[in-house]
Design goal:
Alpha-Beta Plaits, 2 domains, 4-stranded antiparallel β-sheet, about 35% strand, globular, Cas_Cas6_C, hydrolase activity, acting on ester bonds, CRISPR-associated endoribonuclease, hydrolase
Length: about 240
């Protein structure tokens, strides 16, 4: 399911350039209307081995803005899309935002127009463009150093597929019976994106990609996101 929030701003909304953690905290705060569920997602979520998945994603904020002192200043309205394969999560968000509004820091905005969609992927092959950047990485178990892959490496696409396998198994309890196939659209450049999230730098990539596989697998990725760190604002795509 997909939830699109259109927030009318009674006063300008000022956010740091690295605002993903702020949006994530808004989502968790809204889910606290059902404390047990919110705690489950925040503490563990759906697991596959040592990996934990929250099964929601959000895109970048959209709206007219200007930049000043390395901050975004949205002036009249801002929109945000949240997706999840879990209807309960979307419905809890709608209920919470309707009752309590959306608080960015000390300012609560209550003039919110919410749209709920249940769009599904019905194809076995799609061409997508990233709405929020795609990231995949590996961490050395001895040094704890993290390496972020890039689309010039075959390992980048292998890591996207491995992430899909783990995420699908974590949610459904069974492994997919076939892989997805992903490749960069020919002659299209991928734009590098680096941001800081709670003290750590994350490298990710915008771009256009070919995706193929079983329809239900592509739909699952449409709801949950491609690659890693979906619940931190990475991996949302739209169809071209």
């Amino acid at each position: 399911m997909q939830l699109v929030l259109n927030i009318q701003l009674e006063e300008p909304l000022v956010l740091p350039m690295n605002y993903n953690h702020i949006v994530q905290s808004i989502i968790y705060r809204a889910l606290s209307v059902m404390p047990d569920y919110a705690e489950f997602l925040h503490q563990s979520g759906y697991t596959s081995g040592k990996r934990q998945y929250k099964m929601f994603q959000f895109g970048q904020l959209q709206g007219h803005y200007k930049m000043a002192d390395r901050k975004f200043i949205f002036d009249t309205e801002v929109s945000l899309e949240i997706r999840s394969p879990e209807p309960l999560l979307i419905n809890l968000l709608v209920d919470s935002f309707y009752r309590n509004g959306i608080a960015f820091g000390k300012t609560t905005y209550r003039d919110i127009y919410m749209e709920i969609y249940d769009y599904t992927i019905e194809e076995n092959h799609i061409v997508v463009q990233m709405k929020s950047p795609l990231t995949v990485y590996s961490t050395d178990e001895f040094t704890n150093n993290t390496y972020y892959y890039n689309p010039q490496e075959e390992a980048f696409f292998d890591a996207v597929n491995s992430n899909f396998y783990r995420k699908y198994q974590a949610y459904f309890g069974i492994a997919p019976c076939s892989p997805i196939r992903i490749s960069k659209v020919e002659n299209e450049n991928c734009r590098k994106f680096v941001t800081k999230y709670q003290g750590s730098y994350i490298t990710a990539w915008f771009g256009k990609y070919d995706l193929s596989g079983q329809r239900k697998y592509l739909d699952f990725l449409y709801q949950t996101g491609l690659g890693a760190k979906n619940a931190q604002g990475f991996g949302m795509f739209e169809l071209l």
